[in-house]
Amino acid sequence: MQLSKREIKVLLKLLDSEESLTTKELAEHFQVSVRTIKYDLDNIRLWLNDREIELHAQRSKGLWFELTKTQRLTLKNELLEEERFEIFPDQKLRVEQIVLKLLFTDAAITANQLADWLGVSKNTIVTDLEKVELFLTSYQLQLKRQSGQGMWLEGTEENGRSLIDYLLHHNLTEYDIYQIMNRLTNHDQPKQPIHIGKGLPFYDVYQEVVQQTAELLDPINTNEFDYAELLAITFRVAIAVCRLQMNRSIGSFTMMSDVQELIKKQDIPMLLMQAVFGVYDLPLFKDEYDYICSDRVQDSDHQDILQLTVRLVQRISEDLKVDFGEDAQLVTNLFAHLSLRLGKKHLYPNEYNPFVEDIQSMHPQLFVAIEKACEQEMSCATKQLINDSFIAYIALHFLVYLEKEKSEQGIVRVVYVCSTGLGVTNLIQQKMEEEIPNVEIVCFASVLNAASVIKTHKPDLVISIFPMEDLNCPTIKVSAIPSKEDIQTIKRFMQQTWGDHRSMTAHNPRLPELNSEETTREVILKGYILYDGLKKIFGSRLKKETEEAFLLHVFLMVHRIQFKRQYQLEGNVNPDILLLNQVLFKQAEQLFSENDLAVNEAELTALFNYVDNR
Question: Nearest Cα to 436, choosing from 396, 495, 395?
Fold first, then answer.
C-alpha cells in the first residue's frame, strides 16, 4: 500500500521521538483533528504490518516503537525514499523531477513519456510545464517544444550543470549525508545503495563515484575537506560523467597536461576523476577537471577580508538597528570564517547546509539583512558564492550575539555532532547551555570524525543532527538548530538517566570560571607573550593594516585554547597556506608549546590570514 505524504511525516515523527506521543500531541503538531490522526494511524499500522513492525499503543501513555537504532534508521530511509519518489508527488517536486529528467536526457521527450515516468496524467504534466518554464528562467535556461518531436532544454552547459548541482543538493536529507559519509569512512559496514537521483542515469554513476571515493580516502588524510566539499566533489564528478556520456562537455576538448604532477600531490579531485573516468572510458579534459575542482576565485580578485568583515557588520547593524560592532569576538570570528571560506582552494556555491530552513523561518529579518549586505559589499568575483547556505553560516555568528546570556557551565559531558564551523558551534553551545544549565559540550564533531572524537572524549551523551548508530553511548538526534521539542527530549533523557542535578556535581569538575582572578591574569599574560613572540616570528610579513586586529585575535585565541574552545578542524585547515609557510608554522607551533598551549592546525591557519603570503 501507499502512504500519504502526511502519513509518512506522522510515522517519521514517531520514529524520531524517544518518548511516546499521544494522538492529541500529533494532531497539534500537524494542525489537524485527532480524528484525522486516527485515520492516518489505521493506514500506518497496515503499512507496518507488511513489514512485521509493531506500533505500540497504550491509553493515557500514547504511541511508541520498540526498535533498535539500526531498525529505526532502515525504516526512516525507506520512508524518506517513499516520500521523495511517491507515486503522486506535489507540484513543486514534480517540477524539479521534470527538470532533472530533461537535463539527464539526450533526446527530446514527450509529455506522455513524462506522464508515464511520474505516474500522472498528461494534463497534469501540461499544467506543470508552465511552472517548469518559470523555474528555468532564474538559471537562464529555456524549455523548447516542437510538435511531434517533444521538448528539450537549451542554454549554456555551465547553467545546466549548475541547476543539476542545485537540485541534487536541495533534495538531500540528513540521512543521505550520514549514509554517504558512512560509506566513505566506514569500510567494514555492508554497502547500502545511495538513493540520490533515483530513476535517472545519475543514480548508477553516483554509486560508482562513492565507491571510488571511499577507496581513495582510505589511506589519505581527509582534513583537507569538510563533508560539504566531499559531497560537492563527488556530485560534480558524477554530473561530468553523465553529461559527457550525452556529448555535453563544459568547455574545450583540451587534454590535461599535468596529470602526473597532480597525482604526485595526492590531489583528490584529480585522483577521483582519473579513477571514475577510467571506469567509463572518458578522456581527462582540462575544463572538466576545472569544473570538478570548483568555481575558483582568481588571486587577483580577492578582497581585503578584514575591511569586508567590518563593512558587513556595519551594514547589518544599521539595517537591524543593533550594534553588532561592539562585540569584538563577533568581528574576529566572522573575519576568520570569511577568510577561511573565501580563501579555500575549492569553492562550491551549492553546498549542503542543514541550518538554512531553520534560520530563514526563525530569523527572517537577519537573513534578509545579511543577504542585502553581501550583495552590496562583496566583489563581483565572490558574489557567485552568495546563496542561502552562505548567508545561513554568516547568520550563525550574529545569532551568537543575539543569544548572548549564558547559563552556568554544565556537568553532563556531551559531544555534539553537527555541521561544525566558526559560529555554528558557538550558537549551539550558547543555546544548549542557556536551556539546559547542567550540560557541558566538551567537543563538537562532524559526521566524518564523530566515531574517533567520541572514543577520545568518552562523553555521557551524544547529541547529533545526523542519525548515528553503534556508538556505545546514549545518543539523541535533534534538528540542525535544536527545537523546543529537542530541548525537552534532552531534559527528559537527562532526568531519567542521571536524576537530580546535585547527584551529578562530582561526575565532572567545572572548567575555571571566567571571573577567576588567577585564570584571567594567566590568559592576559600568555596572550601578551604569544602576541609579542608571533610578531617577532612573522616580522615584516605581518600586515601593518591588521596589527590591532591581530592583537585582539591572539588574545581571544589564547582564551579559546585555555577554555578548550578551539576552532574545529573540519573545513578550517588550509594545507596550502601551512605548506607555503612551513618554517613560520613550525616556529609558531614551538612558541605555543613553550607556553603550555596545545594549538591545533585550524587555529594556526587562522593566524596566517594576518600574514602576507605573496
Answer: 495
CA 180/CA 167 separation, integer angstroms: 17
pLDDT tens column, 180-201: 888 887 766 667 778 788 889 9
412-504: CATH homologous superfamily?
Response regulator (3.40.50.2300)
Q: What is the mean pLDDT of the chain?
A: 80
- How far separated are the first and last CA of the chain, in Å rounded? 64
Work out the pLDDT band at 89, boundaries 50, 70, 90: low
pLDDT of residue 300 exceeding 50: no
Task: List Cα–Cα distances, 28 to 278, 358, 430, in angstroms.
Answer: 54, 20, 29
What's the rounded mean pLDDT across residues 527-551?
A: 85
316 contacts: CB under 8 Å, gap ≥ 6 = 324, 366, 369, 370, 373, 398
Which residue shows C-alpha cell 593566524? 607
HSE value, Cβ hemisphere, 13 Å, CA-based, for 610: 27
Q: Write the CB contacts of 484 (distance below 8 Å, at least 6 apart in sequence).
A: none
* pLDDT tens per residue, range 217-251: 765 555 555 677 788 899 999 999 999 999 999 98
Q: Which residues pair with 58 in a beta bridge?
A: 62
Gap between the Cα atoms of 164 and 103, Å rounded? 7
Q: CA-CA distance, 338 to 386, in Å (whole number)?
A: 12
DSSP per-residue letters across 262-303: HHHTT-HHHHHHHHHHHHTT---BHHHHHHHH--PPPGGG--
Count of other CB atoms within 10 angstroms of residue 547: 12
Q: What's the gap between Cα 353 and its chain centre? A: 4
Angle subtended at Cα 342 by Cα 309 and Cα 375, rounded to the nearest 5 degrees: 60
For residue 611, give the amino acid letter.
Answer: V
Q: What is the biggest distance separating any 2 CA atoms in the chain, rounded to whole angstroms?
A: 83
> For the packed helices 227-245 and 286-293, what is the interaxial angle rounded to 10 degrees?
150
Q: Specify whether the CB–CB gap between 165 and 235 falls below 8 A.
A: yes
| Nearest Cα residue to 341 out of 64, 571, 604, 59 | 571
Extents of the domains making up the chain: 5-66, 163-293, 300-402, 412-504, 517-610
- State pLDDT tens for residues 36-77: 999 999 999 998 988 889 999 998 889 999 988 778 877 887
Strand partners, 475: 462
Q: What is the mean pLDDT of residues 442-469?
A: 82
CB atoms within 10 A of CB 137: 10
Q: DSSP alpha helices (H): ranges in 31-110?
A: 34-49, 69-84, 91-103
Residues 241 and 277: beta-carbon distance below 8 Å: yes
Task: Give the distance from CA 153 to its chain's centroid.
Answer: 31
pLDDT at 504 over 50: no
pLDDT tens-place string over residues 484-500:
888 888 888 877 766 54
Angle between helices 424-435 and 388-402 (to 10 degrees): 40
Hey, is 420 helix, strand or coil?
coil
Any idea which architecture 5-66 has in CATH?
Answer: Orthogonal Bundle (1.10)
User: What grid cell was written down for 364?
Assistant: 527572517
C-alpha 354/C-alpha 465 separation (Å) is 9
